[in-house]
Amino acid sequence: MLIAFLCRVSAVAHRARTSRQRSVSELITLLARREGGLAPLVRLLRKTPGLDGLSTVRLRGVVRGDETPPWCLLFAIGAACGVEDLTIAHHDWADRYRTALESWCPSPLGIELRVLIAEVAPSLRAFSPRLGFNYSVLTREFQRIDRDEPIKWFHVERILRAAGLPPDGDRWREVRALWSTADSRRKKPGNTFNG
């Protein structure tokens, strides 16, 4: 009886420790420790719809900080493991994801739109059905956005609506500001006149 009580107290204390993670890496590390390692955690997660393709290698990359998966994947992992509050982990994820995007995406508008998409879909290909058109169209739009080429607002607006962003929110206004200043960020061709 006493042993059962101590086990329950230990489980409650562990749940409290894993309810507010400071980082994405710490979230996966603590969940793996609770389950007895990364492999048992992956076995548990593969029973959850949408996480059946998860691998130990991928989670190990997350723990090391080598990989930052889309937020929708991390949220599903947290939900499958009963983590109640992922707010701090979400902020850490957003910082890491933006940093990873900045290494290859020159446009702040392109970065912000990709962050919004990664919150609700694992990839652009998975997100495109929400828009009602082909993935190649979305890819073409992002190529233009990444070059800060002029693009009509409705192209950006439909991405925001498909991501579930409310039109009266701060992030909507931030994306609108990034869109309206894209032309000023566009690199102008240099002077080719050699006098």
Structure characteristics:
mainly alpha, 2 domains, 195 residues
Question: What does this protein look like?
Answer:
With 195 residues, this protein is mainly alpha-helical. It has 2 domains: 20-104; 106-186. It has 12 helices and no strands. The protein has helices at 2-19, 24-35, 38-45, 56-64, 71-80, 87-102, 108-120, 124-131, 135-146, 153-162, 170-180, 182-185. The chain starts with a helix and ends in a 10-residue tail after the last helix.
Helix residue percentage: 55-70%
Q: Write down the domain tally.
A: 2
- Shape, per Cα inertia axes: elongated
Series of H and E elements: HHHHHHHHHHHH
End-to-end separation: 92 Å
Task: Give Rg in angstroms.
Answer: 21 Å
The unreliable regions are 4-9, 12-20
Structural class: mainly alpha
Strand content: under 5%
Q: Please report the total strand number as a whole number.
A: 0
Q: How can the largest sheet be summarized? A: none
Helical run tally:
12
Question: Taking all residues together, what is the mean pLDDT?
Answer: 86
Secondary-structure map:
Layout: H1 2-19, H2 24-35, H3 38-45, H4 56-64, H5 71-80, H6 87-102, H7 108-120, H8 124-131, H9 135-146, H10 153-162, H11 170-180, H12 182-185
Helix pairs in contact: 2-3, 2-4, 6-7
What's this, in brief?
By secondary structure, the protein is mainly alpha-helical.
